Automatic annotation (TrEMBL):
Protein name: Very-long-chain enoyl-CoA reductase
Pfam families: RVT_1
InterPro entries found in the cross-reference section: DNA/RNA_pol_sf (IPR043502), RT_dom (IPR000477)
Domain Reverse transcriptase residues, every copy: 1-211
Organism of derivation: Elysia marginata
Source organism superkingdom: Eukaryota
TM spans (from-to): none
Length: 247
């Protein structure tokens, strides 16, 4: 999985360092924003263009095929760890709340990973990475020296963007992911064209960061000013805040 390191990339270089999957769990959204900035800088320095196809997977955590996940984990964890994970994924009860209903009808679920714990994101990342191994062959094949060192995908949790010089066939990508019960919402797929002639990409947001450097700085300044205004009474009129709110 192509994810940037925590070190700022060399903007003059043709390469972008990636890290093994086991180290990727330590990275943050800032590390994912870096490769987008790197690609944008390459566009401004050289006469090249990229396409980033950001896919939208519907309720990804809730659609994982547990048996497939456990099969994948057989080659990663030992027998005891595998047994523990199987136990944690079993007996999942979903309690629905229907407006107007007089009684609840809980039911067992054998799909997805329970959210809200520290294990589920790790299991999902392993599951998605395994699926992406089958997606990569259907992506446009790299043909130039620069394209061969580009990250093929930039991912953070279920937010995945595929990078290529040519058009990316999202329908083919969706067919592969469908084998893993991951549903790609084609209508919500975000295509970002990075080129000198385009300006829309500068205001495209990736993991909370605008790709355009100046645009991102201006947006963060505006958000900071708005936050300061909202907290004006706290910063400037602290003596007028009721005592019960201070404790």
């Amino acid at each position: 999985m192509a994810i940037a390191t925590s070190q700022p990339p060399d903007l003059e270089s043709d390469t972008l360092t990636t890290v093994p999957l086991k180290e990727a769990f330590l990275l943050s959204t800032s590390d994912v924003a870096w490769p987008h900035k790197w690609l944008a800088t390459k566009v401004n320095i050289e006469k090249i263009a990229f396409e980033i196809a950001g896919i939208d997977t519907s309720a990804a955590f809730d659609t994982i095929n547990r048996e497939t996940l456990l099969k994948i984990l057989e080659d990663i964890v030992n027998e005891d760890e595998h047994r523990i994970i199987r136990f944690l994924l079993s007996n999942t009860i979903i309690d629905t709340k229907i407006i107007g209903a007089t009684e609840k009808k809980p039911f067992f679920s054998n799909l997805g990973t329970p959210q809200g714990d520290s294990l589920s994101p790790v299991l999902f990342t392993i599951y998605l990475e395994h699926a992406l191994k089958e997606v990569r062959p259907v992506l446009p094949k790299p043909s130039t020296p620069l394209e061969k060192v580009l990250p093929r995908e930039i991912a953070y949790a279920d937010d995945v963007g595929f990078v290529a010089f040519q058009d990316i066939d999202i329908e083919e990508v969706g067919k592969v992911l469908e084998k893993y019960n991951l549903q790609v919402n084609v209508d919500k797929t975000e295509f970002t064209n990075l080129s000198r002639g385009e300006t829309n990409w500068q205001t495209t947001k990736k993991v909370g960061t605008l790709i355009g450097h100046q645009e991102d700085i201006e947006r963060r300044k505006q958000l900071s000013s708005a936050a300061l205004v909202k907290l004006k009474n706290v910063w400037l009129k602290g003596d007028k805040i009721k005592k019960k709110y201070k404790t």
